[in-house]
Amino acid sequence: MTRPTRPLAAALLCAVLCALAVGGCSAPGGLGTGEPAPPVSAQLRPESLWPLWTDRSVSGPGTSVGTRELPPQPLENAPEVGPGGLPAVNVQDVVRADQQMKAFADKGWISAPGKVGMRPPVFRDLTGDGDRDLIVAADAETGRTALTVYTARANRIVPILFTVGRRLAAETIGGDLLLRTAAADGSEQAVRYHWDGERMRVVSDERRYSKSVPGCAGDLATPQPKRTDTYGRVCE
């Protein structure tokens, strides 16, 4: 076999070096110099096979997938909201206009636990519009508490949350509402609600159990991290 002449060998070496200069410096899997970028594809979105059976809203625990909630409607026969906002309206008139709360309207106001009636009204901005919303809670003879949150839409009053719980305690976390209730099994349920533009919606629902829960026994004198029993319940 004859060797290539020097001019031919030099030409071959030049061709190899040119190829390396063009393609050898690009990162693995990357684009070479002057190579056009591929077009960006749009992010795929879920497409329902049966739209009528699909609930596109964020459902809380226990909500049926096929349930479509109607938007909250203004209360009929409720006082109109003026320039002073909800803090300026008569709260008892609001409660009387609400079919779910009107039974408590004539129970009167209470200032301490253990009595039947309406707790002092509280005003907080839960919808993020800069105006304070109205929070009303009423304690019943059964030991349960009914709570409703009202907001103002133009000059109308709209209930955006109604819930009932035993030994109910309420807190706010920023613009969210946190409700704690007690259950007969000794547990505490903490439900957090957030304004979704239409109503107060459940964003978290936690249940905590005391150390007396079976499976949570241990050395209580020694500080321990949070543990769970065999059912995944949190041991306090």
Automatic annotation (TrEMBL):
Signal peptide bounds: 1-21
Biased segments, Basic and acidic residues type: 226-236
Protein name per the record: Lipoprotein
Keyword Ribosomal protein: no
Taxonomic lineage of the native organism: Bacteria, Bacillati, Actinomycetota, Actinomycetes, Kitasatosporales
Region of interest: Disordered: 55-84, 214-236
Biased composition (Polar residues): 56-66
Domain of life according to the entry: Bacteria
